[in-house]
Amino acid sequence: MSDAAKTVPAVTRVGLVGLGEVGTILGRALAPQGLRWLGGWDVKLAHADTRDAVLARAQAAGIDQVGAAVGQIDQGTQQNAALVEEIAAAASSLRQQANELVAAVSRFRVS
């Protein structure tokens, strides 16, 4: 088996190499001997393995982004809940002060 033929399985095992890098590696390994011996199926396999790795990375990155977005939503929800509690406490205090004001003003008689 030629050195170039040994390179193809090694390249297909590299899961995280970009498509451009696979093409460069294959081009360097196979250029002296030409691509005649390499059937289209082998090239497609190399690209499919790399494509799957790229898609898996993209999917993982998308999942990470969704996780980060959910974290931000959760943080915003917690902040909103804290604000609602503060507003409820302020409304209760305002109600109490209004009742005290009504009681204080009720002592006065306007004729």
From TrEMBL:
Keywords: Methylation. This is Methyl-accepting chemotaxis protein III. SUPFAM superfamilies: Methyl-accepting chemotaxis protein (MCP) signaling domain. InterPro entries: MCP_chemotaxis. The gene is trg_2. It comes from Tepidimonas fonticaldi. Belongs to the methyl-accepting chemotaxis (MCP) protein family. GO terms for cellular component: plasma membrane. GO terms for biological process: chemotaxis. PANTHER family: METHYL-ACCEPTING CHEMOTAXIS PROTEIN I-RELATED (PTHR43531:SF14), PROTEIN ICFG (PTHR43531). One of its GO terms (molecular function) is transmembrane signaling receptor activity.
